[in-house]
Amino acid sequence: MPGLRIVVAVTGASGAVYPLRLLERLRRTGAEIHLVLSRAGEKTLFLETGRKAAELKALADHCWPMEDISAPLASGSFRTDGMVVAPCSIHTLSAIAWGISSNLIVRAADVTLKERRRLILMVRESPFHLGHLRAMTAVAEMGGIIAPPIPGFYNQPSTIEDLVDSSVDRVLDLLGLADEDVRRWSGPPSAAGRDRVVSNNPAVSNNKDQSSADASDPESDECADDSD
Description:
- By secondary structure, the chain is an alpha/beta fold.
- Helix content is 41%, strand content 13%.
- Helix 1 packs across helix 7 and helix 4 crosses helix 6.
């Protein structure tokens, strides 16, 4: 659906490849992209990808300094169709959760929530302690969507880009900009499809025949009938 206005904010959390890929994919949709890149985000971008801020900014239609609280994004009267923080640091998550609008990223997120628009946070941290979980709960209770970049493996990804796209695909779905070419789960593969799966893990390969036999024999699975 072309014509949407999307805000993308980039913090200093690890995972600079996510905004790169997200912006590339958003451009294909025809959406109007507003980018806010923090200084920490610039540093992480260079450390992890070797890319400079100018390369990321070139993928957006409009770029706003993080310190510019007079930017249009700071006002609810400036209509947008959603905001993604990718990646989202715990610092930014916490500030959003408690309404500490000390910069344009947090203010734009606060505006998105108060105007009942879609806010998606690709929180990058592991493991989470109780404080992190409480902050995520607070944002979720206000209507935000917590979407850590956790890749799916049902489509048998073979490259890092496949893993990244797994998370980016879900974000695009949430924004209403679904990619028709995305591979989606449509049920278990056929027996022929399973036969073509090759594992690089010797332990898995050695147990392949036994696993196939077990799967075909209902008596071999103690949990096959859990009606009791």
